[in-house]
Amino acid sequence: MIMRILGEGQYEVDDVHVGRLGELDAALRSAAASGNDEECVVGLRALLDAVRDLGTPLPDDAPTPQDVMLPDEGTSRRHVREMQELLADEGVIPGR
Questions:
Q1: What is the C-alpha to C-alpha distance for residues 40 and 77, in angstroms, rounded to an integer?
Q2: Where is 33: in which H helix or E strand?
Q3: Beta pairing partners, 47
Q4: Which carries the bigger pLDDT value, residue 85 or residue 14?
Q5: pTM of the entire predicted model
Q6: Residue 94 has pLDDT above 60, yes or no
């Protein structure tokens, strides 16, 4: 699965990690829905850190269509909620 972190780059993440990323995505959705900005920041950071840790960075000069686009760490809770609402119950990680 190819994941893009906006403003940072793309990572190739093996499908074996989708379950873990799905758990982090669910925690992020819960934090965004709760209205707790601090939890939302922590949840987004955890998801992005997992993508960085579990994925392999792809070269910038060979862009590949991504399966998932994630906001950067500076994204506000409001923007995360809007993104989550667009994706309804699916979250940002497909197939979790």
A1: 6
A2: helix 18-34
A3: none
A4: 14
A5: 0.81
A6: no
